[in-house]
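Thread: MTE complex, take 2
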Amino acid sequence: MVTGLVGLTAAELTAAILGNRIGPIDAVAEFIRDLTPGPVVEWAIGLFGAADKTVLTAVVLLGAVSVAALGGGRRTGPLVFLLLGAVGITAALTRPAAEHVSIIPYLAGTGAWLLCHALLTRIRPDKPVGAATTDGVRSTDRRRFLLLLGGLAAASVLGVIGAGWIRARSVVEAARDALQLGASPGTVPDGAHLEVPGLGPWQVPNDEFYRIDTAFSVPTVDPDRWHLRIHGMVDREITVSFADLLARERTEAWVTLCCVSNPVGGDLIGNAWWSGVRIAPLLAEAGVHPNADAVLQTSVDGWNCATPLDVLTDDRDALLAVAMNGDPLPIEHGFPVRAVVPGLYGYVSATKWVVDFEVGRFENFTPYWAQRGWAVLGPVKTQSRIDVPRAGTVTAGDLRVAGVAWAQHTGIEKVEVQLDEGPWRTCELGRVPSVDTWVQWTTTVDCQPGKHLITVRATDRTGVTQTDEVVGTVPDGATGWDEVFVTAE
Ligand SMILES: Nc1nc2c(c(=O)[nH]1)N[C@H]1C(S)=C(S)[C@@H](COP(=O)(O)O)O[C@H]1N2
Ligand SMILES: [Mo]
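Output below.
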């Protein structure tokens, strides 16, 4: 029985990896369906209704495992497994659009059957532990047999889970590739990106964008099945499908997303062009009760966060985003729909794979990170980072210094750089389209031979200069000034 399962798993996993249309169990089920006379098919449909296909799949699975268990003995095994393999290959080759690669999973499965059968029958488990070993069978054979059996069964279970995941992922990838969202790719505003060697792009490409989430396996959500339910303290509960969402007025905006776990000088931050639908009108449609103060956002994988209602309903571009830099959201970044809220750290706002909005009160919510000691509110703290030069040796003389600064939804007023204990000098700032993005900055300092410390600080548009008090990322974000040590030669 275990041998039977291992071979089926090997075949299903191979089919999933190769991206074959159907796996072996389903291929044999289709084969049987095609061979079955019409009246029998009608009778089965009458009996099982919409569950007919599930029933047939279960019959094929149980049938294969039963044949393996009953016929897979020491002597008959190899022949029985070769016959089962032949049935599979026949089914595969009679499927529409069958190709040569279609039979590879059956070869892999039959190979796994024969190998597994050989392994398990080599051991003689029928000797009890401690039995006399007159025929040369060791007393530990039973234990070895059981361990091997358990290991193979466990591998088989993992393989089935893996095959399912790979299939789901490829289905969702295909759906993503087929989407035509009509989102613009985002044109970097003139003067936003400063041409300084070593300074990263103002617009961060999707494949370079930082990724933070708690998901061990990335959720795969089929857009055709995606829904967002808005409920709780509202006048009328509403459910929005992906098609409904796309039919609504579209908003596109530059927003810099930042993680609360970003240390001073860290790179858990990125700026992208998001296309989506504003959250405020959706909440208005549901009719939010006046005494509600938060929305508990939940992801399809159960992760959740609570976002203040006022930031979701004021005039900022708090979005349900469907595209990132012009492309449908990458699966890792929340496909098909995620929230993006300017001004807040991701852990309280930027729910990926979002499916549920519960309107309510903070006091009644215990979201994922708040349960683990992080702050309930997570406004982004004003920060600045030095990207050029890197720590190490530099050429003495005029030294180019550059980096980024951010104070989302407040805006950056000024960035200053200090060499050693010298005066603070004001930097040149890149142009930005709004207060919701980071700003690139640059300046030159006169760097005489020797060791130096370069420090940066930013001032936001409310006139507040970032504090030099060094605080870690827990519970609500790091503070302190970024600095870099250089030796000028
Ligand atoms: N479903 C889900 N959404 C999530 C998270 C998560 O763990 N699960 N992490 C949040 C955090 S802490 C951050 S900083 C951002 C990161 O988004 P990104 O991975 O697209 O950069 O996603 C937020 N959304
Ligand atoms: Mo985060």
